[in-house]
Amino acid sequence: MSESWTFVCASAELLPGEMKTVFDEVTGTPILVLNLDGQVYALEDQCSHEEFELSAGEFDATAGTIECVLHGARFDVRDGRALCAPAYQPVAKFPVKQEHGGWWTRDDRG
């Protein structure tokens, strides 16, 4: 578990409908940060069906979903839950905070 927060970007750089990938510097975990209507969420940047980065997929800001380009699995960006086959397990969701004019996240798994 990482106790240190990873800087994502300046608050103004992540607009609604946009996403950005960062790496937790302590755990080496790739994290996908998404802005859904001004609310920012962070998920592990890896499909739970097969090891493939979700950031390569399409972020549907209207539906609040991210789709893996490999096999079409979709996940809710708000909580990471799998919405359709072939994925049945959620992707890890991480905390996000806005501080010092920027967005921050971290891998908080134990």
TrEMBL record:
Keywords: 2Fe-2S, Dioxygenase, Iron, Iron-sulfur, Metal-binding, Oxidoreductase. Pfam families: Rieske. The keyword Cell wall biogenesis/degradation does not apply. One of its GO terms (molecular function) is 2 iron, 2 sulfur cluster binding. Gene3D superfamilies: Rieske [2Fe-2S] iron-sulphur domain. Signal peptide: none annotated. Residues 6-105 form the Rieske domain. This is Benzene 1,2-dioxygenase. It comes from Pseudoxanthomonas dokdonensis. The lineage of its organism: Bacteria, Pseudomonadati, Pseudomonadota, Gammaproteobacteria, Lysobacterales.
